[in-house]
Amino acid sequence: MKMSSSVPAAAVAVMVLLSAVSTTTVTGQALVPGVMIFGDSVVDAGNNNRLATLVRADFPPYGRDFPATHAPTGRFCNGKLATDYTVESLGLSSYPPAYLSEEAQSNKSLLHGANFASGAAGYLDATAALYGAISLSRQAEYFREYQSRVAASAGERRARKLTSGSIYVVSAGTSDYVQNYYVNPMLSAAYTPDQFADALMPPFTSFVECVADHRTIVSLPIKMNAQGLYSLGARRIGVMSLPPMGCLPASVALFGGGNAGCVERLNNDSLTFNRKLGAAADAVKRRHSDLKLVVFDVYQPLLDLGAPGTCTNATGYVFWDGFHPTDAANKVLADAQLLQGLQLIA
Ligand SMILES: *[C@@H]1O[C@H](CO)[C@@H](O)[C@H](O)[C@H]1NC(C)=O
Ligand SMILES: *[C@@H]1O[C@H](CO)[C@@H](O)[C@H](O)[C@H]1NC(C)=O
Ligand SMILES: *[C@@H]1O[C@H](CO)[C@@H](O)[C@H](O)[C@H]1NC(C)=O
């Protein structure tokens, strides 16, 4: 078959990747040694079950469509998260365990990554503190502990390869707005959305990279991470952008003024944040030629999925609860992220 010269390079890359993916499923060889997951409820797979927090998903109907068990796991979804689909596509045979879970007590379970995410965590540690969630700073500390456990049980060499070869997924920011800025009158009076987005950039940069001297333009108390992912050895990082926050059913109910449509003002805040996030990520990349860093666009795929709505039959709808996509929407997101994340695997 003669390939038309108009086939874009990206399409060729996708075909190559997809054939690699199908090969891995046949041979049992994964494309990466592991996946490390950080952030909020979009990716939490059960850490909040172990915390004294009200932000949890360990009761029905959560997990209703989760494979095999059809039981709640702590995932904020009827079924699988986008990261679950991603882990499958990468050829890994099990999901990275929630770091606080029973399963993660066994050192063997940690050899293909772990999940440190916690519902209601944000780029601001203060956001997590409001809900008793695990802050990003604490997640980074758990990751260091994880690294020493892997090194102690499987050897330094294996631990180093796992650290540098794994894909790191970071999902944060939504809680800083929806569970902090929008509902905290002092914060929203003191900062315009634009200033608030600016204030989230130093903790973002600090979490993925770790440098000491980033400044903030506003006087929010921002705790910088002592250690960022890059300085801890991560070299393949994918960061999720903000979703269209104005389309989250909770936002429509709270801020929609009785209209069923998405709240444009909040969607604009997402776009503002995402623009600044892209620039901050570019700046990090420029400082480290050995770092692969991709910002996954969550905004457009979710917007394209159409009008929001919650429903008892979650399969055909975009959102499962006030804040979180359905299993079906997560599959669409994961497919989009696989394409955007090709350069992380290459
Ligand atoms: C896991 O490894 C650490 C470090 O070697 C060790 O202290 C701990 O006892 C191990 N845990 C289990 C359950 O084997
Ligand atoms: C959202 O942004 C668009 C484009 O910049 C602008 O035209 C519109 O007025 C904004 N809407 C709100 C509610 O701020
Ligand atoms: C739920 O929706 C899916 C897709 O629209 C459909 O195939 C399925 O039959 C529905 N299930 C129920 C119980 O209505």
Automatic annotation (TrEMBL):
<dbReference type="InterPro" id="IPR008265">
    <property type="entry name" value="Lipase_GDSL_AS"/>
</dbReference>
<protein>
    <recommendedName>
        <fullName>GDSL esterase/lipase</fullName>
    </recommendedName>
</protein>
<dbReference type="GO" id="GO:0006629">
    <property type="term" value="P:lipid metabolic process"/>
</dbReference>
<dbReference type="Pfam" id="PF00657">
    <property type="entry name" value="Lipase_GDSL"/>
</dbReference>
<dbReference type="InterPro" id="IPR035669">
    <property type="entry name" value="SGNH_plant_lipase-like"/>
</dbReference>
<dbReference type="GO" id="GO:0016298">
    <property type="term" value="F:lipase activity"/>
</dbReference>
<dbReference type="InterPro" id="IPR001087">
    <property type="entry name" value="GDSL"/>
</dbReference>
<dbReference type="InterPro" id="IPR050592">
    <property type="entry name" value="GDSL_lipolytic_enzyme"/>
</dbReference>
<feature type="signal peptide">
    <location>
        <begin position="1"/>
        <end position="23"/>
    </location>
</feature>
<comment type="similarity">
    <text>Belongs to the 'GDSL' lipolytic enzyme family.</text>
</comment>
<dbReference type="InterPro" id="IPR036514">
    <property type="entry name" value="SGNH_hydro_sf"/>
</dbReference>
<keyword id="KW-0732">Signal</keyword>
